[in-house]
Write a structure and sequence with these properties.
The protein is of the alpha/beta class. It is 43% helix and 16% strand.
Length: 309
């Protein structure tokens, strides 16, 4: 089958496209310059040219707490438009299946841990990432509406925070792992005695290595056809303080960590119940956090600080 991957040249897409090819699919990954998904005529042209059987919608405007605080309207607008245009074009071109990536950010701020799919609607998301999380949540509802009215096979995956090679290491926009790797490494190089980090270190997060995420998505393409969302993660919770200490050790930084409690913590806890992914996809995460962090740091030292070719 012919699979069109939006965002196929991005961080997750660069891991997913090879995995899909390995699993026997013909993969098409148009660049953003060829198809800006915010503009319906460009999306229509892209679908007309590629004639996909399956679409995996990865493309997103996304970032860490800093970006969410600076650009909430852009995150809401871009993600809503991209998703709506992709869903509608899948209907117009009779695509057999659409897999849409959702986010753990859509879950309620105060949610029983681990997060179960049944708890998805039990509250409002954490405020700093609510515009992004609600935009993604709206795509779940839209996909279910198109499934009901037009009998479309639209699948929604709720993904935890990803990390790995080719991640975004821009300190203004990045998520926590690449930001910490860069901060500790540069502090070591410049012999800074202190690294200042946001919050107090107590929030917990769950992290999934990007190749494991790619395998989960490919499994969903092959095996999952329900309209109910399904969690994708490793089910393991780690505090930001513990994460910082691990990255400090991996980068061999010898200075101190000072927590800036004037900065937001974000959601208090995040960890998914991944039992449905194990049951319905036959998939579990394989990469330990320590191994994934070491590989990510090695990649950044080798290639991440240079323009990708």
């Amino acid at each position: 089958m012919r699979v069109l991957v939006t965002g196929g040249h991005g961080f997750l897409g660069s891991a997913l496209c090879p995995q899909l090819r390995l699993d026997g699919f013909e993969v098409m990954a148009p660049k953003h310059t060829e198809c800006d998904l915010r503009y319906a005529p460009m999306v229509d042209l892209c679908f007309s040219k590629n004639d996909p059987d399956v679409v995996v919608h990865l493309a997103a405007n996304v970032g860490g707490i800093g970006k969410n605080k600076r650009l909430p309207a852009s995150l809401a607008y871009d993600n809503l438009l991209m998703g709506i245009n992709v869903i509608h074009s899948c209907k117009m071109y009779r695509v057999r299946k659409l897999v849409v990536l959702g986010t753990i950010c859509s879950y309620p701020k105060f949610c029983d841990v681990p997060f179960k799919e049944e708890d998805f609607w039990k509250g409002y998301p954490e405020e700093t990432n609510a515009p992004y999380g609600i935009a993604k949540k709206a795509l779940l509802v839209t996909g279910q509406a198109y499934r009901q009215q037009h009998a479309m096979n639209i699948v929604h995956l709720l993904m935890v925070n990803l990390y790995g090679p080719r991640d975004n290491f821009d300190l203004e926009d990045s998520h926590v792992i690449p930001a910490l790797i860069r901060k500790f490494h540069e502090a070591k190089e410049k012999e800074r005695p202190v690294v200042h980090l946001w919050g107090d270190g107590t929030p917990t997060r769950e992290f999934l290595f990007v190749r494991d995420a790619a395998k989960a998505i490919s499994a969903a393409v092959r095996r999952y056809d329900s309209g109910e969302p399904i969690n994708i993660g490793n089910g393991q919770e780690v505090s930001i303080l513990e994460l910082a200490e691990q990255i400090k050790a991996i980068t061999d930084y010898k200075g101190e960590i000072v927590w800036d409690t004037s900065k937001p913590n974000g959601q208090p806890r995040r960890c998914l119940d991944v039992s449905k992914a194990e049951s319905f996809l036959g998939w579990t995460a394989e990469t330990t956090l320590r191994d994934g962090l070491e590989e990510t740091y090695s990649w950044w030292l080798d290639k991440g600080r240079e323009p990708l070719r």
